[in-house]
Amino acid sequence: MRRTFLAVAALFLLAFPAAAKQTSAKTSGSDKPPAFVFLDPSVPVFSDFAVGGFLTNQYGLGEWGKFALTTLGLGLDLEYTLPIKFPKNMRLGISQHVDYAHIFPKKGSNLKRGDDVSFSIGAFYRMPFSLFGQPFAFQPEISYAIYLHNVDGQNLSKASGWYSDQALVFAPALRWMPSKISKLPEWARNSFEIEFSPVYTISVEHDHTLNQLGFRLGAVWHIKGASGAKNDAKNDEALAASQAEKARLEKALDEERKEKERLQKELEESRAEQERAKKLEEERRAKELEEQERAKKLEEEERRAKELEEQERAEAKKAQLKESLEAVRKSPELLLGVDKSELTGFSPDGDGLNDTVTFRPATNYMSAAPESWSLVIYDPSGNPFKTWSGKNEFAPKEIVWDGIGDKGDAVFSESAYKAVLNVVPCAADRELLGMDEMSAKVEGGVEINSGIVLQKTGDNEWRVAMTKFRFDPNEATFKQLNAEQKKDLDDTISHLVDKFKKISGAKITVEGYANNLSGTKEENENELIPLSEKRAQAIMELIAERGIPRESLDAKGMGDANPIASREDRANWWKNRRIEFLIKK
């Protein structure tokens, strides 16, 4: 049995160089991996459940060795690696084992035969490393076990029967992941591990202890597979892109700084030229004064008039220079560009037409990146629906919106959404402009009007959600609508009918929804469902009048079912009061 143990251990250890040879044969020169890297962060990690099976073999030590030569058995393992991240991809987990072993008695002992069944629970700490490019993990484990023994005695021994004891099990396991062996299928390379581990067991039986030393060999299957190292390439690409963007911004700032220095130099040269001109002018005046002193009084009066005129011209030049200097220091100017074709008919339904809106924010006359910026899309009720923002950076040249809000909900059909750009300049620009605090905004923003949005919900199935229908209070009529509201209702029905006619042979169900103010079942059944059904029927009649066959139409009152906003979210309650169209072909 000892020879068997040594042979299995040798075969297991020889498998690693063979696998490493297969991988290293594909690399050469500087691509050859290091022979050994401890705590290698590139080794795949697991954060899930795993099941495994093991062959176990242990030899008795001390008193236990007097009775049994060895125990040989099989075991089942259930592990869970905790989703707690430690440095260098190290992990912590818990394990459970169920083992069965047959006891091989030693000749001449009082033991005729025996069987062991054990149940254990333990904890392990996983430390990854690589050997010749192959991923490994050192996984020491300590477990608490309960053993049940069924033994038969001989040589007049009365030790037959069932016994139980407790034990501590130490298993410094070595695991190998065959992820580098390309000939294996993907599911095997990323989910299986092969384990070899020495095992040391200390059993406490009545008033004495029994010791065993052996090994276990087996395999473990991770249900979710490996993670961690797969993201390295993506992380490297993201880091490279971030560094490139940082270099681009630094280059732009450097060019802007050089341009500012050039303008400053031109201003200084202009001042120097004015000083030289002023000095020449003063010299000329002095010469004139000497000549005028020798001249007559009339010439003195003429000189004084001329001097006054020259002084007025100098002050005018000074004022003009001041105006030119102030013109250089302009306040920040904000622009939010959007193609006019995208302002109406915005329908993000995946049909390739008007699915996105592209915003092009621009900030002019700023010496450095603003302290903060934000682009906010407001829903028809004025609540923030989608937000992009940043600090100490310029807004991107283009921001593409697909119609989805921050909470994952889509835009409603035939609704107006307003986009507003806000910028707070940096401290240097505020100081340059002599302002303690400033917030620049696009006045009025940009309004995006959505069209009919067909949201695909299945094969040949779509849904249109709308909140803009107005009814008389607590009624399913339109008598109290003013002329503008009635025209808006008429236009909306026309847009819906045009869209429905393009889907020939479709069955359309009009669903009415309402808000439950009291939150009670009685209000929903007695008031909301009847009212929402009447309103759905009213919309169905308007559609039928425009040419949609009545046999293809149906109406349902849904009451407070399928709420978009919770009762606590009062700001978005208006989204629950809506009409939806379910289209099936």
Structure description:
There is one protein chain. The N terminus is likely disordered. The chain is α+β, with helices and mostly antiparallel strands and 585 residues long. It is flat. A hairpin with a 2-residue loop joins strand 5 and strand 6. Helix 3 packs antiparallel against helix 4. 29% of the residues lie in helices and 35% in strands. The longest helix is centred in the middle third of the chain and has 63 residues. It starts with a helix and ends with a strand. The strands form four sheets. It has an eight-stranded antiparallel β-barrel with strand order 2-3-4-5-6-7-8-9. Strands 12, 13, 15, 16 and 17 form a five-stranded antiparallel β-sheet that branches. The chain has a five-stranded mixed β-sheet with strand order 18-19-22-20-21.
Estimate the strand proportion.
35-45%
- Strand segment count: 22
Structural class: alpha+beta
Strand order of the largest sheet: 2-3-4-5-6-7-8-9
Helix content: 25-40%
Major sheet: 8 strands, antiparallel, barrel
Write down the overall geometry. Answer: flat
Global Rg: 42 Å
- Average per-residue pLDDT, rounded, comes to 82
